[in-house]
Amino acid sequence: MKFRMLFVAALLAMCSFAFGQAASVVVTESDNPLTNNCDGSGGCVPAGTMVEFHVDNAPLGVYGPEDPLVNVGPGPQDWNFSSYPINPDDIGNCGGFITWESWGTNSAAPSPNGPFILVLRGTGNAQWVSGPRTFGSGPAEWEADGWHCQIVQTVCNNQPATVDISSGTPVCFPTCLGHTTDITSNCPEGRPPLATMDGATIPSTAWTYSGGMWHLTYVGVVDGGQVCFLQVGCQPPACTQPGQIGFNGQNSDPTHPIGWPAQQCIQVCESTPPSTTLLMICSTDGTPLDPTKPPLVEVRDGCLPGPTRCDVFCEPGHAAWTPPVWDGLCWRITIFGQQNGCVCVEFNGFLAAGVVEFVATASDNAMGLYFRTVAETEVARFEIDRAVKGHADFATIARIEATNSATGAEYNYSDASAVNGTTYSYRLYSVSPNGDRTEAMIAEGTPSYNAAVITEYALHQNFPNPFNPSTQITFDLVNDNFVSLNVYNVSGQVVATVVNSSMDAGRHTVNFDAGNLTSGLYFYTVKIGNEFTATKKMMLVK
């Protein structure tokens, strides 16, 4: 004890020397047997247990949560007391000492100035409360004696054993220290709940699946508290785009009742490189298909209510697809997943005159129209009709002589009478020598930018698209700048550098020749200085 007192005196002296009149150190010790239970059992209160410093506004021996912590008075900050750990025993018999430091001016005093008590909670039923002490200003030492033991037994039976959060509405319940609650959800196996606890996201790895339910064990951290859970959904299912699908290419007539039209709903996945599905359209009864008439196929976002197999609802996805390719037995179309979800693949018969693509590309007060055939037999010409979208008054704006090439041909037409900001619908027809018109394909477009004045950076869609083997790429520069234009394959590899130099402000159109590349989907990216970067897709079909 005397050694301790000498140590305290020396410590106070050192602090006064080190900090002048601006420091105060208080050391308190206890020779009482502070045990985990009031009957002296359960061993000593562990070293490191937090000791609370309170103002004692209640009679000695009575301590309640209404007692506030000491307030700091006005002026320089002083008496920074809150909770402090009990240090390892130094005298045995469950005694110990607690140290803390406050800083400020020695002329300052706590407000109120006391009386203060120390409160120490054991791991059993003991709560130890010291005798009171009043403080004035300046350095002080407090040898805390007169400890009084109170029996504290917390009874908390309000925390439920099981809570189901499947309803999607907030579920709140009281908490009890150390009690557990089984949080459950009926999300499907393999798809953990998307949920929060008091607004914080619960990691999907925290859930376990058993007995047809998802489970999460919550342990209460405080008596008399509250916790809230909210389930906002279930993890989406793993995306599994099919590798191949097929349609029966037989005609839908009384002798072949399983032909077209037909639909099929499939899941597509966004990935790099893109996930692909091979669509095969073949004859299943031995009747050969006409290799000069490709199938009419459309892939539309989502599988909303409609006829046949797309009469289901699912989250819409998005996909691109290649023009049909004849392999000698079947027509082959590759579908590229671009956004997770489902798409409806529609097979509506076969195109006339072997038309495989019809594309409308916007320009300034004009629309570029491109179409391609894989074979032409007995076609006198092609005609293009136009109407403002939503109107039924289509009028013929172009008549283009057919080549009647057995291997097909490419055609371009510019609708120079289009008006910026107006969306147009175009219909392409093949016309036989006797004048019969057969609708081939439909395209839409909206001219929307002024080529004369460049007010913002832009990258435009290549034209024609699809292309073979060359296409034109247009981009806009607001000012003189360095431009790089690269072409990438679906694996992210650079397959061509089209531009890599400084260029003047204005609209620029460059030619890209893909004669050394294979058919497929490609991406082109323009980077203009440090101001602008954009990427678009294009399709090479050979």
Give a description of the structure.
It is a single chain. The chain has 542 residues and is mostly beta strands. The protein has 5 domains: 2-151; 162-234; 244-350, no CATH class; 352-445, Sandwich (Immunoglobulin-like); 458-540, Immunoglobulin-like (Sandwich), CATH 2.60.40. The protein is built from 1 helix and 37 strands. The chain has one helix spanning 2-19, and strands spanning 23-30, 50-55, 83-85, 96-103, 116-121, 126-129, 148-151, 162-164, 171-175, 180-185, 193-197, 200-201, 208-210, 213-219, 225-234, 244-248, 262-268, 276-282, 295-301, 318-321, 325-326, 331-339, 341-350, 355-363, 366-373, 381-388, 395-401, 410-415, 424-431, 437-445, 458-459, 470-477, 481-488, 494-503, 506-513, 520-528, 532-540. Strands 3-2-5-6-7 form a 5-stranded antiparallel β-sheet, with no helix packed on it. Strands 16, 18, 20, 21 and 22 form a 5-stranded mixed β-sheet that branches. Strand 13 and strand 14 form a beta hairpin. The termini are far apart.
Task: Write a short abstract of this structure.
This protein is mostly beta strands and 542 residues long. The chain has one helix at residues 2-19, and strands spanning 23-30, 50-55, 83-85, 96-103, 116-121, 126-129, 148-151, 162-164, 171-175, 180-185, 193-197, 200-201, 208-210, 213-219, 225-234, 244-248, 262-268, 276-282, 295-301, 318-321, 325-326, 331-339, 341-350, 355-363, 366-373, 381-388, 395-401, 410-415, 424-431, 437-445, 458-459, 470-477, 481-488, 494-503, 506-513, 520-528, 532-540.
